[in-house]
Write a structure and sequence with these properties.
Layout lengths: L1 H29 L3 E10 L2 E10 L3 E6 L6 E4 L3 E5 L4 E5 L5 H4 L2 H10 L3 E3 L3 E8 L2 E8 L5 E7 L5 E11 L15
Antiparallel strand pairs: 1-2, 1-11, 2-3, 3-4, 4-5, 5-6, 7-8, 8-9, 9-10, 10-11
Helix pairs in contact: 1-3
Length: 182
């Protein structure tokens, strides 16, 4: 009989810890206006790195550490990927970044889904929206978003790891003006 009580108490406490972690993640994420970070991105085995700034709602500026001077910019409506020799523009809503850059959408999703513990260090929230699979990863100690994995409609797998995370820095909004085509 004691074992049953122990199991019930253990399950109750572990659910409360998970709920507490989720609440802390939601609270911290709710209070973010912008976040800057270094990143490492693996797209189908090709690794790139650089730094990014996300400003909510739905703006991002990323500068890659590549010789081709690659930048990725969203003004909230369109997404541009520009290098020395190429220029691509997409409607933001057709990309997985549309969801990652939408703080209110993410807050609602996280609130509504159950997280999955990974190695006692991270918690993962996974959802599929408009044929886009998105996995968000949060650090269980700092409650920071530390990365994401997306699978887009073309089945490209992209894994992005975040480091050197800074929140609510003073920003120059000119960063989010879409670059002109070469």
């Amino acid at each position: 009989m004691r074992r049953i009580y122990f199991v019930i108490i253990f399950l109750f406490l572990s659910n409360n810890v998970s709920a507490s972690i989720k609440e802390n993640i939601l609270d911290k994420f709710q209070n973010i206006e912008n976040v800057s970070f270094d990143f490492e991105q693996n797209v189908n085995g090709k690794i790139e790195n650089g730094n990014c700034i996300i400003a909510y709602p739905q703006k991002i500026y990323c500068k890659y550490n590549l010789g081709n001077k690659k930048v990725l910019v969203s003004n909230g409506k369109s997404l541009v990927i520009k290098t020395l020799t190429s220029y691509y523009i997409y409607p933001l809503e057709k990309t997985p970044l549309y969801f990652i850059l939408n703080k209110n959408f993410l807050l609602k999703k996280i609130k509504d889904i159950k997280g999955r513990n990974i190695n006692d260090n991270f918690i993962n929230y996974k959802f599929i929206e408009n044929d886009n699979e998105v996995n968000l990863f949060f650090d269980k100690k700092t409650y920071n978003l530390i990365g994401w994995q997306t699978v887009d409609i073309y089945q490209n797998i992209s894994i992005t790891y975040l480091s050197s995370i800074k929140r609510n820095q003073k920003l120059d909004n000119k960063l989010f003006i879409l670059p002109k085509q070469n």
